[in-house]
Amino acid sequence: MAPTASPRGGYETASLHDEWRPGMGRVVGVSWAPRLKALVGTTTAAPSGPPRINRRRSRVRDGGQEQRGDCSMELEAVLKESAASAGDPSRVLGAWVRRSWSTSGPGAEAEVTTAPACEAPGNRARDVDSRNQEPEYEALPEGSTVTTHMLAGAVAGIMEHCLMYPVDCVKTRMQSLHPDPAARYRNVMEALWKIIRTEGVWRPIRGMNVTATGAGPAHALYFACYEKLKKTLSDVIRPGGNSHIANGAAGCVATLLHDAAMNPAEVIKQRMQMYNSPYRKVTDCMRAVWRNEGAGAFYRSYTTQLTMNIPFQAIHFMTYEFLQEHLNPHRQYNPTSHMVSGACAGAVAAAVTTPLDVCKTLLNTQESMALNSLNTSGHITGMANAFRTVYQVGGVAAYFRGVQARVIYQVPSTAISWSVYEFFKYIITKRQEERRSRH
Question: How far apart are CA 59 and CA 22, in angstroms?
């Protein structure tokens, strides 16, 4: 690939061929002489005879030792180094020219007035690699915006609740204190098969639309608040490191926002999931609750929900971050570690907080058969009242009704939530970084 003399003075480079761009297909007649001139400007007139790119040697220090570099050989080496990349050759050449121009001082040895001094091949190879290297995943969240966390969290929450909704329906029924004889189940699979066979194939997903509507904004607030507080508190408690106390505290505060947005949807969802539910549509259930019990019914279980979810989320986040430190110490994007950590964290937190979930279900559904068995009139209100009612109906064992279904629900649910959240956070932030680098 020999340079040719330009009629206006200076040099132009002959067209590049496909030998130096493997895997890119055949590229014929691509000349970047105009691009080179736009970057460098017009050079001095070519001497007679075969034109040559400045072959005067410049001294460059690398690791304390002087090396001599040849510009023409240097340029060819840079082009070969970038051959495997999909970048535009003009960009590579422009970067080489700009770097060399910035490093050449007034006293640099150069034969052509506008030509840059050469760099050592080892230095340039490292520089090209560092520029082409993709940003590390653990550094990406530093540039993430609140919008990124909210969008990723909303997608994760909707997918989590929708994919696991049939199991959630079984969990609600298995936590019933006085189930109908036709709604007694030994395990999750038997329950799903029995519901589909006797009540129809769409019955396990009735009410899923209201859950998706509530899960989107609830998880958007949840993850955005968690990420912000986790970083802020970690900088205070353990600067430059990860604090389990900060993770737990951030999860607790994030739960306040999550449950405030999600609680009305939970009330409607669980009433539609119960056996022999009189509601066929979400709007029918909303109107009936509002008309018969008032607006307060949508937040009757809010305190119990917080009492359950605050310890649940504290255990959940602390376990997740603890497992990430061991499974993914460099905090790279690793889907397997996100799924395993999320699944284990969800299982531990779900098993520990099952008694609180049983009380929450009782407050949300106001189960009529349980109230009739105790000759109780009116509605059950408050966590203390719910705890007494559960114990009076079924004893200590009643606090762990549906624990199997709850754990089975939470393991894939939290695995889906974390893996989807981390994936979308990675993709969105990476694209934001690419847009910033182009500008």
Answer: 33
DSSP bridge pairs for 5: 11
pLDDT in tens, 359-371: 888 888 776 666 6
Q: Pick from 2, 8, 10: which is nearest to 111 by CA? A: 10
24 vs 45: CA distance, rounded Å: 35
Q: Characterize 50-68 residue by residue with b for buried, 16 or more Cβ atoms within 10 angstroms of its Cβ, and e for exposed.
A: eeebbeeebebeeeeeebe
Is beta strand 58-62 parallel, antiparallel or unpaired with respect to 11-13? unpaired
Per the prediction, the chain carries an average pLDDT of 74
Domains, the chain: 3-132 (no CATH), 140-438 (1.50.40.10)
> What are the tens digits of pLDDT across the range 25-56?
444 444 444 444 444 444 444 444 444 444 44
Q: Which two tokens stand for residue 319?
A: 């376990």
Q: Which amino acid is at 342?
A: G
Q: Which amino acid, residue 270?
A: Q
Which whole-number Å values give the CA distances from 1 to 13, 26, 32, 71, 73, in the listed order? 8, 16, 13, 14, 11
The closest alpha carbon to 36, from 90, 79, 103, belongs to 90
- Two structure tokens written together for 292: 């018969």
